[in-house]
UniProtKB/TrEMBL annotation:
It is a peripheral membrane protein. It comes from Irregularibacter muris. GO terms for biological process: cell division. InterPro entries: AAA+_ATPase (IPR003593), ABC_transporter-like_ATP-bd (IPR003439), ABC_transporter-like_CS (IPR017871), ABC_transpr_LolD-like (IPR015854), Cell_div_FtsE (IPR005286), P-loop_NTPase (IPR027417). The gene is ftsE. Belongs to the ABC transporter superfamily. Keywords: ATP-binding, Cell cycle, Cell division, Cell membrane, Membrane, Nucleotide-binding. This is Cell division ATP-binding protein FtsE. Homodimer. Forms a membrane-associated complex with FtsX. It holds the Pfam family ABC_tran. GO terms for cellular component: plasma membrane. SUPFAM superfamilies: P-loop containing nucleoside triphosphate hydrolases.
Length: 228
């Protein structure tokens, strides 16, 4: 689980990006974080990834306090949390296979596990045929599938997605959502920040609406039908 208790974030310029956030995310949930530009979605995600520290409050990951992790404790977090961004962020000089294998190499997985796991993951995201292509030979949707494969290859408990469909046309975006639902079904907790109302409203999952740094709505099978 992930829990935020009375979390606030004030940037150095005095801007309060998050105000008194309380949220509990159960293992296996799929949660959309929505809200207008500037609402605090990216800040919320940066706190979970430890790219920013909160000004006040507490963050728990599986009952472990991760509010102020030391530098040497951050690998613990990185193993438990996979991440996907709007702009894919693949390594341009590595093939699809190598991009995914690399994520296993940096945690020093046994080569045997790598050569077993990478083809399995490629097949799960529907990219077996593309293993030896480079990112610039792929469509946007295919690149995002590679990014998803890389994010989950080490079997993290949590997958965090920041506008994962933001650069994709609606049909391709739906394909990415189908992969995300499959990943979630296999037990991975997913937290997805997005502007994509159609996707959110079709999904009938939990929807947390941020507005001016506050949670103004948090509903199971929620909808997001107006700008907040
Ligand atoms: P969203 O992802 O919903 O667009 P953000 O979390 O990026 O929202 O931003 C929330 C608010 O905090 C915005 O008003 C933004 O301008 C401000 N903000 C974000 N990052 C910084 C920063 N590094 N320094 C100062 N203000 C920031
Ligand atoms: P996105 O909308 O794609 O989430 P943002 O525009 O919120 O991205 O932020 C892009 C980068 O600029 C982030 O690293 C954020 O921390 C920083 N940033 C955003 N708003 C401000 C701000 N008002 N002052 C300083 N840095 C900011």
């Amino acid at each position: 689980m992930i829990e935020m208790i009375d979390i606030s974030k004030e940037y150095k310029n005095g801007h309060k990006a998050l105000k008194n956030i309380n949220i509990y995310i159960e293992k296996g949930e799929f949660v959309f974080i929505v809200g207008a530009s500037g609402a605090g979605k990216s800040t919320f995600i940066k706190l979970l990834l430890k790219e920013e520290n909160p000004t006040a409050g507490k963050i728990l990951l599986d009952d472990r306090d991760i509010t102020y992790l030391r530098q040497r404790e951050i690998p613990y977090l990185r193993r438990n949390i996979g991440v996907v961004f709007q702009d894919f962020r693949l390594l341009p000089n590595k093939t699809v296979y190598e991009n995914i294998a690399f994520a296993m190499e940096i945690i020093e997985e046994h080569p045997k596990n790598i050569s077993k796991q990478v083809p399995m993951i490629l097949s799960m995201v529907g990219l077996s045929e593309r293993a030896n292509n480079y990112p610039d030979q792929l469509s946007g949707g295919e690149q995002q599938r590679v990014a998803l494969a890389r994010a989950i290859v080490n079997k993290p408990k949590f997958l965090i997605c920041d506008e994962p469909t933001g650069n994709l046309d609606p049909k391709t975006a739906q394909g990415i959502m189908d992969v995300l639902y499959k990943i979630n079904y296999s037990g991975t907790t997913i937290i997805m920040a997005t502007h994509a109302k159609e996707i959110v409203n079709e999904a009938k999952k939990r929807v947390v609406i941020l507005s001016n740094g506050e949670i103004v709505s948090d509903q199971q099978k929620g909808v997001y039908d107006h700008e907040n």
